[in-house]
Amino acid sequence: MEGRLQLRYLTNHLMMGLVTACAVVCAVALLIILTYVIIRGLPALNIDFFTQRPLPYGEAGGGVAPAILGSLAMIGVAAFMGVPIGIGTAIYLSEFGRGRFALIVRFTVDLVAGMPSIVVGVFVWALLVRHVVGNYNGLAGSVALAIIMIPIVTRTVEEVLRLVPDMLREASLALGIPKWRTILGVVVPTARSGVVTGVILSMARAGGETAPLLLTSLGNQFFSFDFFRPMAALPVQIYNYAVAPYEDWHTKAWGSALVLILVISILSFVTRWVTRGALTER
Amino acid sequence: MELEREGSATVTLGTKEPKSRLTDVTVSMPQETKADMGEAQGGLEVINLSAWYGSFRAIHDISLSIPARAVTAIIGPSGCGKSTLVRCINRMHEVAPAAWVEGKVLLDGEDVYAPAADPVQVRRHIGMVFQKPNPFPMMSVYDNVVAGLKLEGVRNKAVLDEVAESCLRRAALWDEVKDKLSASGTALSGGQQQRLCIARALAVKPEAILMDEPCSALDPIATLAIEDLIRELSQNYTIVIVTHNMQQAARVSDMTGFLMMAQDRAGVLVEWGETHKLFTNPSDKRTEDYITGRFG
């Protein structure tokens, strides 16, 4: 008996140690990446970096302002297109979706979620760059990002809507509130923080996409808000700086990476703040 | 059988006199609705009602006449269809997938299952309180009470304030929550939450309120408070309370119906009558066995 108890304690400690080790590895990996990006990128940061356009090699200074604004603009337009569609699909799937059609929709959403982003890029390139517009353009970039965002929004939002207890839907219906108002007035607000998380996740993912943007918005060294012309974006800027043979540009690539992390963090924070509830959680 | 789904009711105004309450498509302010109704009493008549979940028949051919402005208790062992019966009365039964109903339920003589009747309107006239207190967690106490009005677009602050206070007073909750109206509804105790749900149901001015085991999640003190409240409310509202607690039925109700499962597991009404008589001198042997604790 004594021996078995010892063994059980040992197993317990061993497993505890194992999962703790996993958590530590995970946290450390993230911290190392973050620290490294900060160490390498910080020297590139100054006021000019946030306010100036990129300069050709050999000229000192310059910044990535067009890329910051371009990224924000394209993410914004992509969110404007993708988030409503994603949330709408999620509402359909969680509140109405029964039977074969819902099954097909769910399967398709999973398929698109698992699709390599370059494939989305190629498709949008063939459609919007080669045909409809005729040249590389920011709108095509936004469409590609929206296609990437939709399945992320749909799946996360569907999950959180399903977590809303049925008794709240019933409580609302029993008050004589029509189903559509019940969904918009009770179900979605109850799941609000989860919905916002889904939206933020999708924006963060879209903000970091490089491959589809190389094929669609191409990148731009100048300030441009014409969605029918090439538009700058941070991931593309990072790529261009990183593949160049110049030491100075490599530092700028790290700096741009740090800026991208900052931009996405700020975007997440602002989204959370704007959609915060009137009620403070207990 | 084809069910009228929500929103499918259409009505041509002015063709029917007096105007039906259950088919009103435009939602008027509850005050006006009340005025429209004239001598609304809230008496309910259940006629040959059967309900199914898919192919499973949950209740079988139940008929009973629920008096207005009194408390009617529905008792019976677990699974005998008590909840299904009350959920049929305000058309909440059909919210479940594949659920359907046969028979009639008359509210002051008007069939809530008539082809033109709108379930949304039916539920405005016949409110419901559930087993587990279910205030909306993202809303304050105040917003919970006026949720039914606010979600239907009533924005007038004075109206909402008035409704919130009067309903909380009628639910005997005002004194306890008047200082924390902006706190979350889920921050209250279980008993307070249930009274909040009652206040919320009162706010849309129903004539009848269905209560599906409203005290089963509450402690004895909170239960007592709700029972007092039920007695109080029955002066102005028709109350139907489902309970598996026979003492509770005996304490609060004027009329009692006893449901039991038949051979095919569908619930049937075994006995129906005044509470006093049903508990002291039941006419059916099965009722006597149940209330004396021989089974169930």
Helical fraction of chain B equals 25-40%
- Output the helix-strand order of chain B: HEEEHEEHEHHHHHEHEHEEHH
Which residues of chain A sit in consecutive blocks of at least 5 with pLDDT less than 50?
Answer: none
Q: What is the spatial order of strands in the main beta sheet of chain B?
A: 6-7-8-3-9-10
Radius of gyration of chain B: 19 Å
Descriptive notes:
The complex is a heterodimer of chains A (282) and B (296). Chain A has 282 residues and is mostly helical. Chain A is 77% helix and 0% strand. Chain A has twelve helices and no strands. In chain A, helix 4 crosses helix 6 and helix 5 packs across helix 6. The longest helix of chain A is centred in the first third of the chain and has 40 residues. In chain B, a hairpin with a 2-residue loop joins strand 1 and strand 2. The N terminus of chain B is likely disordered. Chain B is 32% helix and 22% strand. Chain B has one domain: Rossmann fold, CATH 3.40.50. Chain B starts with 29 loop residues before the first helix and ends in a 5-residue tail after the last helix.
Produce a short descriptive summary.
Chain A has helices at residues 2-41, 47-51, 65-96, 99-113, 117-133, 138-163, 166-174, 179-190, 192-208, 211-216, 234-243, 247-274.
